Amino acid sequence: MISRPLLARISSLLGFAIGIAGVTFVVNTLVSKWDEVSDAFSQVNAINLVLSLLLGLAAMTSIGWIWVTIIVARSHNVRHRNAMSWYFTGQLGKYVPGGIWPIVGRAELAVRNGIPRLDAYASTGLSLVTTYAAAIVTIAIGAAGTTGHRLVAFLIAVGLITAYATFSLPSLRAVIIRVTSRISSSASSLTDPKRLVRLTVLHIPAWILMSLSTSVTATAFGAHIGIADMLFITTTSWFAGFVVVGVPGGIGVREAVFTSLAEGIIGTPLAISLALMSRVIFIAVDLSGALISSVISRLNSSAKS
Known about the structure:
The chain is mostly helical.
């Protein structure tokens, strides 16, 4: 049987290779389409980019707020205004090579602020699982609203229904948790099917906001992608960047997937420009979120002292 450290090393190496391939694709596209890409960037509407950043910040704040709520549900007296700084600062860990830093970052910050280690990591694991389960649902919603991806929506719906029915059976749930725990100890937090569904549904608005943010970025370039297509393209590219372990922030992977899905609608130069600008926007979201939440947390701490 393959050990967990060996599995982690294999997945990281595979993810690194995929990430390199993604970056290579993006760079080659940039070089071959440089005139069109530079022309697209020269016509960007800055006001739309600010609105895009605000929508992205709302999306990430929503995810962080739910994570803190999960911690509070474990009988910990935590103020959201303080704990949001743990979330946003921990998010910066996703830009460090390796797949564990987004988990370790916010979980360890929670531990340093008095949350028991088991609860901190279990809450973070549950947050990540339900965040990306919501991504799968959002992909299905977007696919159902398009003309070319409805089979994807159907297959996802069948898969989700089957997974829920399977996970609802206590004996099968115990086996699933035991097997998945060999890959990630966070699997031990997956205990209540109804709660998983509820938390998954609560995360869907965040993916809609992320897609709206990318839509506004598209309009900044003068490009127009239907909301259903944007839901499908944006969420699929983010999900691909997440599941490929070992690539910091999914860099290269997300952009390659986004470009390949969007180029048939708006053309390759605009697609690669939009993918790159969206990356810049969400880096700005992470940085501004960390700054704003840290300031709010410090002001709140000063007011209490």
